[in-house]
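Entry 14. Structure prediction run on the chain below.
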Amino acid sequence: MEITKNKEKELYITHLFNAPVEMVFQAWTDPKQLTQWYAPEGCSISYKHLNIKENGNFHSCIHDPVHGETGIHHDFKQ
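Output returned:
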């Protein structure tokens, strides 16, 4: 896994999955699947905006009972 930061305080994480592209895409774009693995244990996740297409994006919110809410923004490049 590679993690880099840029000057704009954005964090880029890359990872190579040993799985078919279609399966990985579904895991990242299907809200039902995302709720099963994306949020840390003990937390839940909701979706504010979901626009799955090339150059699309989504906005989610992780709800943590101890630390509160954290907004997450993803951009789909291709």
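The chain has two helices and five strands.
Filed with the rest of this week's runs.
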